[in-house]
Isopenicillin-N epimerase (Humibacillus xanthopallidus), 380 residues
Amino acid sequence: MRRDIADLFELDPALTHLNHGAFGAVPRSVREAQDQARAAVERAPMRAFRDELPAGLGDAREAAAAFVGVPTDAAALVRNVSEGVAVVLASLDIGPADEVVVSSHGYPTAASAVQARGATVSTATFGLGDDPRDVVAALAGAVTDRTRLVIVDHITSPTALVLPVAEVAAAVAPVPVLVDAAHVPGALPGLDVEALGVDFWVGNLHKWAYTPRSAATLWVAAHHRDRIRPLVTSWSHGLPFPASFDLQGTVDHSAWLAVPDGLAAWHALGGWPQVERNAALLRRGAEYVRTALGTPSPHGGIPTAPCLEVVALPPGVAETPEAAEELWQRLYAAGFVVPPVSFAGRGLLRLAAAPYNDEDDYERLAAALQTLLRAGSGAR
């Protein structure tokens, strides 16, 4: 691990952190900025809620919108992608008579949110080794006359694929498309949200953009903005989108107020050149692990994310959720924070690369895996 960079965070030095994509990691400076924002509210709560928070939250929204390259009036702050999905489902009044299409690579809470509203989930299936055309065909083929919404991941969480969301949107039109972009802000260069032809796009800022957790941005196409409402009716009620999302009662707004500090930290850590460095490191690291395990790349023609990649585990390893959990616990006990994934009956290992990682992290992981798997851990 690069100690000079790791010391900018508060990560446990006894662990090798190779799972930045799960929850991110908050730099010390950003945590301190959030503490200061919280303290400012506590010094004069009445003044803060009446006079100061609206301006501060407006600045945070503007910074988040600029970071993902969308107009300020097009994006609201929400706490995470799951909240953004729930907002869209509620605003479209998705209910028992409706169907929502998701993919087999989708994050499961999106499907859970659909089911919670009594709607039907239709899952479009495609393989890890498939072509982008297969992704488009699967999602378009799942659409019926009951389909009210298609939810597609921009970067898939379990498999680290970059999906062709613009092509999907064109293929399923006029059905609206919601993009789950949890892993995108700060990790996927060349982003042009408004050119994708989608209706909604929501990305977490706390994974790769170093903001405090509970910070995400929800972009909404212009023709939907007058119907989008926050889940909580409070003091921002009646304001136009996106200000209508700002003041939702006496919640802790400090994570949002520190969004500009997190984005400043992303730039200070190197911005896009740092992402390129991390991506190159990850490709080398994944190759170390594949070589140690003797497994081929599981990928086909679908591009992979810059800073996330999955490596195939040997046959019989982590092929069920229970076996993946067992291997996770053994890796953690050995000092490695890295998630095994059971996907479509096969075992994968999802690796990430952050500025604090170096090649030694992956070399040691490769050696540890050889030892653990020789001992039969995770095999079922």
